[in-house]
Amino acid sequence: NGFTIYSSQVSGSAYLPPASGQRVLTSFGGGTGSLILEEGNFVNAFPAKSIGITDQNKAIIAPTGADKLELRFATTTGALTGNFIHPVTFQKTKIAGVVLQKTQRAAGVFVGSTQSNTAIQTGRLAITPPAVVP
After folding, report:
1. Alpha-carbon distance 87 to 5, whole Å?
2. What integer pLDDT is reported at residue 133 of this predicted model?
């Protein structure tokens, strides 16, 4: 039956691989940002998460839980990949996305899963930077 586009806004940015020991998103040097997963046929809201990025570009996600959420950054390309256990099907679900250096964010998608006869929704991943404290 096709799909509905709720917004026609598209964003992107050029990607410059970081030097060794530097983060793909430099704003994460001062703390943790926010990570949300939404849509994707969730019955209840996905739990709120925080995310930090180490100097080696490893994602540190908290709190950990039954969702087993994992993310990885490809520093050469700016790609973001990962997976989690979907709370409806309890199956491992892949996430794919990109780093947006200009806005210091990352975004991605995943294919939702449902055990009923409802349409499968594409889910959204959004990573936002730590709050700036004056």
Report:
1. 25
2. 53
Strands in 49-53's sheet, in edge-to-edge order, are 59-62, 49-53, 33-39, 122-128, 105-111, 92-100, 79-85, 70-74
Q: What is the 3-state secondary structure (H, E, C) of 29-64?
A: HHCCEEEEEEECCCCCCCCCEEEEECCCCEEEEECC
Assess contact for 131 and 48: CB atoms under 8 A: no
Query: For the chain, which ranges sit under pLDDT 70?
Result: 1-8, 114-117, 132-134
Query: Which tens digit of pLDDT belongs to each residue from 38-65?
Result: 988 888 889 989 999 999 999 999 999 9
The angle at the Cα of 89, spanning 43 to 110, to the nearest 5 degrees, equals 75
